[in-house]
């Protein structure tokens, strides 16, 4: 029995002024040594963990509301509430909180401190005396209420006086008199009085004002705003325009009354009361709480009424139900789901599980098949609640459904068809439905089990049963070189479809790849680049860019085989010199291919579209692509040269990481300096260049190094440190044979210090720097890796060397 009485829910008020459920447990009060005082303790009923530990502070304002709620503030922006299952338990804890004070009051103390003088004045007077509730004294009452609002203690005394004397009911009787007499001045005073009572923020007063017999008169008082020339007609709207419809009869009178009350209080908050100022906003926090807890109660009572929900879903799916009735049922269900958003996560879980068990998804399928646009719209909103709550539940339903029904009547296909057939010129409904589809096909929220993943099962289902329905408008509109329909609404729809396909390319693997290649989807999408609507052309470019960005050779071969860069190049040329998004998007696509060095696409673009693009010089993208292509061809035609350059760049000069960049720069600069005027290192346009021309810069480089070193130090040919070395890992030889031959005897060798030899960097001691030898003038001379200081002298020496060494003018050979 004690457990039931002390069973509570713990709530905290978040930044949006909404109550968050922190859990259910059992409350007790005990002395806590750490807090040095009596404290409220709430332990979770699930695992006994501590949900709340709050010291009872005599200076904190605790409020008791609706007989089962205790609300207080722990800090400036941290409000707490305990919601009791039974009134008896609430009363017990309230007595503990009051700690000897009168437990009949609904508030222990206000938070805001007042000046000592004001407190002394209030303490000397036992209570606030209200003027008699008479017509002639209304102005005096209004002034008293207005003067009490700034002072927390005076507000408390005013609230107690209003509550104890039944003053609100007397004021409402005066309102009826003033309205009969058309006493406009008295009505204006009553408006100010009632508005002030709202700002007192007291649950006990709200319960009187929102009772069945008083609430309409309270609304009537608030119609006569002194700042308006004519009174509002809120009561007329609530009694004639707004009508309560019981689509399913509600047998519980308490539930019916709670629904009426909540609707009217919500109306007061949203429509009747003036928008609160910054200073008044927190004064209506109790009104927000009143509505919130009412909604929680309503959802709980309806959810527990199994007869009600069973009847609701039975009528929704019954073919005999007329359209008007079904329309009302769907709107009720939509409102019911909207109310559920006030629930906390665990309560919302139970709510949607109940709806799922009742068959909400089959019911939605029936509703979505109807012709009524409004009913379908409401059903879409309900469907969105379900997808956002638990997409796996929806996926499981549609996969089970596919085993029994044809593709045409599957729930997801109905959603796709409604998206395609949206009559709204702005496609508002289609955008919403596309967002739901994206959530359903997003692998990020799919569950994985021990046996088989939901991702594999659902995506296989989707591509087999649904993808053809989604892509049908795209395929129908792209049979020619231009879109067959290019109006704004069609283009918006196609843009939505292409965006979803782009999402699939990014997040799905072989499913979308197989679909694109088998159905030639990319070629169809690229037809849209010819659309007059730039946003659609950009969607198509984004789709292709996403595919290229995967750097998947299956996609690349598909693009090259079907020449799918052709529509992109056409769109680029048709755009002309205009500097716009299409221009930038296409250039960025080619730039990506260049920067990432996608070799297959680079060769394809240059070989097929270079003539169309060679004149574009305001960006270097296309010339850069051409250079990449020529470098590729160079490496293909001369693999030995490529190997030599790679080795020399990466190892030959890498004595020290600090000098790497300088030495690489020296290598390239040396090549260019030693060439004759107008000669390139490897002329890319001349595919018939001889090996002699290609190796000539290397020969010159090595000779220059030899001569530079000879100025600093002489190396004897018979030195033991060189003659006893093992043969190097590769040799640079010069031969007079017309073609390179691996069997030709070398006449010059790279000796110790070459890559792979024992004294190369990283393997040998730093005291023996790498050296190399070249046979010339009958002697071995060491090469060192320093840039030449006197280039003019070296040029002359190069000329002499050429004259004295005829083999250097012959074809060269690299053997390894």
UniProtKB/TrEMBL annotation:
<dbReference type="InterPro" id="IPR051137">
    <property type="entry name" value="PP4R3-like"/>
</dbReference>
<dbReference type="GO" id="GO:0030289">
    <property type="term" value="C:protein phosphatase 4 complex"/>
</dbReference>
<dbReference type="InterPro" id="IPR011989">
    <property type="entry name" value="ARM-like"/>
</dbReference>
<feature type="domain" description="PP4R3 EVH1-like">
    <location>
        <begin position="5"/>
        <end position="95"/>
    </location>
</feature>
<dbReference type="Pfam" id="PF04802">
    <property type="entry name" value="PP4R3"/>
</dbReference>
<dbReference type="GO" id="GO:0072542">
    <property type="term" value="F:protein phosphatase activator activity"/>
</dbReference>
<dbReference type="InterPro" id="IPR006887">
    <property type="entry name" value="P4R3-like_central_dom"/>
</dbReference>
<feature type="compositionally biased region" description="Acidic residues">
    <location>
        <begin position="786"/>
        <end position="801"/>
    </location>
</feature>
<comment type="similarity">
    <text>Belongs to the SMEK family.</text>
</comment>
<dbReference type="InterPro" id="IPR011993">
    <property type="entry name" value="PH-like_dom_sf"/>
</dbReference>
<dbReference type="InterPro" id="IPR016024">
    <property type="entry name" value="ARM-type_fold"/>
</dbReference>
<feature type="compositionally biased region" description="Acidic residues">
    <location>
        <begin position="667"/>
        <end position="679"/>
    </location>
</feature>
<feature type="compositionally biased region" description="Basic and acidic residues">
    <location>
        <begin position="701"/>
        <end position="716"/>
    </location>
</feature>
<protein>
    <recommendedName>
        <fullName>Serine/threonine-protein phosphatase 4 regulatory subunit 3</fullName>
    </recommendedName>
</protein>
<feature type="compositionally biased region" description="Low complexity">
    <location>
        <begin position="727"/>
        <end position="770"/>
    </location>
</feature>
<dbReference type="GO" id="GO:0005654">
    <property type="term" value="C:nucleoplasm"/>
</dbReference>
<dbReference type="InterPro" id="IPR055236">
    <property type="entry name" value="EVH1_PP4R3"/>
</dbReference>
<dbReference type="GO" id="GO:0006974">
    <property type="term" value="P:DNA damage response"/>
</dbReference>
<feature type="domain" description="Serine/threonine-protein phosphatase 4 regulatory subunit 3-like central">
    <location>
        <begin position="140"/>
        <end position="631"/>
    </location>
</feature>
<feature type="region of interest" description="Disordered">
    <location>
        <begin position="667"/>
        <end position="816"/>
    </location>
</feature>
<comment type="function">
    <text>Regulatory subunit of serine/threonine-protein phosphatase 4.</text>
</comment>
<dbReference type="Pfam" id="PF22972">
    <property type="entry name" value="EVH1_PP4R3"/>
</dbReference>
